[in-house]
Amino acid sequence: VQLVQSGAELRNPGASVKVSCKASGYTFTSYYIDWVRQAPGQGLEWMGRIDPVDGHTKYAQKFQGRVTFTADTSTTTAYVELSSLKPEDTAVYYCNAMGAYWGQGTQVTVSS
Length: 112
Fold this sequence. Notes:
Elements: E1 2-5, E2 9-11, E3 17-24, E4 33-38, E5 44-51, E6 56-59, E7 67-72, E8 77-82, E9 91-97, E10 101-102, E11 106-110
Parallel strand pairs: 2-11
Antiparallel strand pairs: 1-3, 3-8, 4-5, 4-9, 5-6, 7-8, 9-10, 9-11
């Protein structure tokens, strides 16, 4: 099982960012993809999850209205898009499958 994420991103406040997570080595539609982030000096924060089989999503309340999860079964890739970025969104963003396999993380930095 391998989850490979897109590279680091730098954005201005108010912009949006989209991070990808390419899955391989298992049946993509068999397991949820969770998205988790870790801000500097903070613990892991669960953002929500998507079921790739039907695109059903569950968002943590904190992020509702600002985050969108999508999954492309043709490329076995999941995406998280976060809009209206704030400096507090600076963090490493991770995808997770089966609760056991992690992407390598994507640094998102929000700064003017």
